[in-house]
Design goal:
Layout lengths: L1 E6 L3 H6 L5 E10 L2 H12 L12 E3 L27 H6 L4 E4 L5 H9 L3 E4 L5 H5 L2 E8 L8 E15 L6 H5 L2
Parallel strand pairs: 1-2, 2-3, 3-4, 4-5
Antiparallel strand pairs: 2-7, 5-7, 6-7
């Protein structure tokens, strides 16, 4: 079923999404990959503030290629989500409501998704050039020294994703891949 949501995502929208739903996101989402997650995790351990408020936000596991002339961003395909699994439960506990990536998640992350009534979305791997056309604006907001792994705020319009793990634990990968 096709659904259209605004980002940041509301608690109600997160609860109403189900594994297998095709979702189009419009609004502001954030990018963060391995190095940015590690840095945020270290900041939390030191009781420091994070560069973004996690409450109801969505993080896209993506590091873009350089933007071509006239475009806000280069190719913007997802990276493997499991590399962020060590850090994810802490961010979900702070109110992170959605993650976009590709691939399976560890048991602890799935349990944290359910506990925090969040959602894990998949974006189509290998389609970075097409996905970048749904990104209207890209602004580095933290960790600029990390280059492509800096945290970016993206403004997206009808960004296509699929719900893989919903807020009650339905898991598209487990239901389809046996």
């Amino acid at each position: 079923m096709n659904k259209y949501i605004k980002a940041p995502i509301s608690d109600i929208d997160a609860k109403n999404l189900r594994a297998g739903d095709c979702v189009y996101i419009t609004g502001k989402i954030y990018t963060a990959r391995d190095a940015a997650h590690k840095r945020m995790y270290e900041a939390l351990e030191k009781k420091e503030l994070l560069p973004i408020n996690m409450k109801n936000n969505i993080i896209y596991y993506m590091g873009p290629s350089p933007a071509r002339e006239g475009r806000p961003i280069g190719s913007a395909g997802p990276t493997t989500s499991s590399r962020m699994d060590k850090y994810t439960p802490s961010l979900l506990d702070l109110g992170l409501k959605g993650m976009i990536g590709k691939g399976k998640r560890q048991k602890e992350v799935i349990e944290s998704i359910i506990k925090n009534e969040a959602v894990y979305f998949a974006a189509v791997g290998g389609a970075g050039a097409l996905l970048s056309k749904r990104i209207v604006k890209s602004t580095v907001i933290a960790y600029d020294d990390l280059g492509t792994e800096a945290i970016r705020e993206l403004e997206v319009k009808d960004f296509p994703v699929i719900v893989v793990i919903d807020s009650i634990g339905n898991n598209l990968y487990e239901n389809v891949i046996s």
